[in-house]
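User: My collaborator sent over this chain with a note saying "see what the structure looks like." That's all I know about it. Can you take a look?
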Amino acid sequence: MVDQNVILIAYIMPVVFGVLMMTKAGDAVATSLTGRYPLLIHARRRHMLGLNIVAFTGFVVSTHTLWITNKISEGGNICSSATVFSCDDVLGNAQYNVDPFFGISWGLIGMVVFAALLFITNAVGKEPDALWAESYLRYGMYMTAAGLPVIALLVSYEVRMEKICQFCTMAHIANVVGLFGFWKAGRMHDEGGWNDDVPESSTSNTSTS
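Assistant: Without extra context I'll predict from the sequence alone. Here is the result:
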């Protein structure tokens, strides 16, 4: 069986890359890639790429947690540990591994939410000038903001169990990063940084001349 820490690192890397694409820290990375991917010279395209990668990672992590939940219910042992990090103890807890209202697995809820976010990021990325694009960005921000109290609830469960599900934490991080990404995309749209007809570097050079 593949070491779960290796899988965790495989989830961390795209999230980090997504954050870089959405922040100034990634400008140098994007510049180094423009020879092969020239569209990355545009700030909006870089940002939406990073946001799309983060949403996709959140979807994959949620799918993984649902798989772990199902395997544990079948008597499997995926990532149990005597340390504080034990996704088996968290995801295998019948009292806490489903939502308190409908009894739906948190992993399945995460899959649905991140699938919706993926739809939004892909739709806006392909039709950035559509009349509905700004509204979609707001929907994405509202959805990820609504995830914050859910994250707080799930963290409170982990505190009670004195265990941490590392994959659940990755899904939480993807949600928080997604909130930042949608918020910043909305600001870019409102402040005139949305148009990619002229590279960002060219506009800054023009403004200083």
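A starting point for your reply to your collaborator: Residues 198-209 have pLDDT under 50 and may be disordered.
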